[in-house]
Amino acid sequence: MPEHDIPSWNALLAAYAQKGRVDEAHSLFSRMVFKDLITWSVMIFGYSQRGDGRKGVELFRTLVLEGLEPDHASFTGLLFSCSHAGQFEECFQHFKSITGDFGLAPNEDHYNIFADILSRSARLEEAEDLIKTMPFEPDEVAWKALLNACKTNSDLKRGQRAAEQAVGLEPHKSASYLLLYSIIHNARSKVCSSHQ
C-alpha cells in the first residue's frame, strides 16, 4: 500500500482497533509516515475501547501538540477515554475546552459521555441537572446512565424520574423497567432489614 494512501491505512487501523487488536493497530500507527485527524481519532478510540483510557488521553495531547485541530470525533474519543480511565476532573476540563479552547459546540455524544461519568462518580444531582439542561432533547442513553447510577447508589426518587424519561423514549425496551424494579426492590430490602 502506498505511504500516502491515508484512507486505506486508516481503514486497516480501524479494523485492528475494532477487533481489539490495539497493539497491532499501534504498531501500524507508529509506522505510518502520514497521519490525518481520522488516524489519530481511531487510535484514541482503540485505546479507550480496550480500557486503556490514559493512553487515549496521552494520544489526544500529542495530536494537539502535532498541530492538528481536534474535531467532534476526536473529542468523543477523548471524553470516552477519560470516562473509561475514571478521570472525572480531566473529563470536565476537556468538556469545557471543546468550546473554550477549540470553538466547537459540544454535541449529544459529548453530553452523554459527561452525564455518564458524572453518574458513575455518584454525582447524581449534577448528572440530572446536566441532562435537563442539555441544548437538545436528551436521549435514552443519558437517562439510562443516570438510572443505572441511581440503582448503584440506591436513589429511588431520582431513579423514578430517570426511569420515567427513559421509558418514555423507549417504551418497548425492558432495560429501564428492569433497572427501576431493581432500585425499588433494593429500597424495600433495606427497609425490611432495618426493621429486623
Automatic annotation (TrEMBL):
<dbReference type="GO" id="GO:0048731">
    <property type="term" value="P:system development"/>
</dbReference>
<dbReference type="InterPro" id="IPR002885">
    <property type="entry name" value="PPR_rpt"/>
</dbReference>
<protein>
    <recommendedName>
        <fullName>Pentacotripeptide-repeat region of PRORP domain-containing protein</fullName>
    </recommendedName>
</protein>
<dbReference type="Pfam" id="PF01535">
    <property type="entry name" value="PPR"/>
</dbReference>
<feature type="repeat" description="PPR">
    <location>
        <begin position="5"/>
        <end position="39"/>
    </location>
</feature>
<dbReference type="InterPro" id="IPR046960">
    <property type="entry name" value="PPR_At4g14850-like_plant"/>
</dbReference>
<dbReference type="GO" id="GO:0009451">
    <property type="term" value="P:RNA modification"/>
</dbReference>
<dbReference type="InterPro" id="IPR011990">
    <property type="entry name" value="TPR-like_helical_dom_sf"/>
</dbReference>
<dbReference type="GO" id="GO:0003723">
    <property type="term" value="F:RNA binding"/>
</dbReference>
<keyword id="KW-0677">Repeat</keyword>
